[in-house]
Amino acid sequence: VITESSEKLRSSLDIFDGMLSTQNYISKEAYSVADIGIMPVMEMLFKCGEEDMLPYHSWRILLGGGKKC
């Protein structure tokens, strides 16, 4: 069963992956899943290859992605 929240999350991640393939910067967003859907909590920009990217990758892997630039 696919809920509205999971659909919003899937859509957000698709847009997220699009950003990864077209930009040299990565937008890091933490999401809170609630009945009202997906809420962006924070956003930070990093250049690819910096050590600060590690938290981003850890978060992405938790969602089943783990995509690296």
Beta-strand share of residues = 25-35%
Q: Percent of residues in helical segments? A: 40-55%
- The 3D shape can be described as elongated
Overall mean pLDDT? 50
Reported for the largest beta sheet, the result is: 2 strands, antiparallel
Which strand order spans the largest sheet, edge to edge or round the barrel? Answer: 1-2
User: What integer value in Å does the Rg equal?
Assistant: 12 Å
Q: Ranges with pLDDT <50 over ≥5 residues?
A: 22-54, 64-69
What is the end-to-end distance? 32 Å
Number of domains: 1
- Structural class per helix/strand content? alpha+beta
Q: What is the string of helix and strand elements? A: HEEH
Q: Supply the number of helical segments.
A: 2
Number of strands: 2
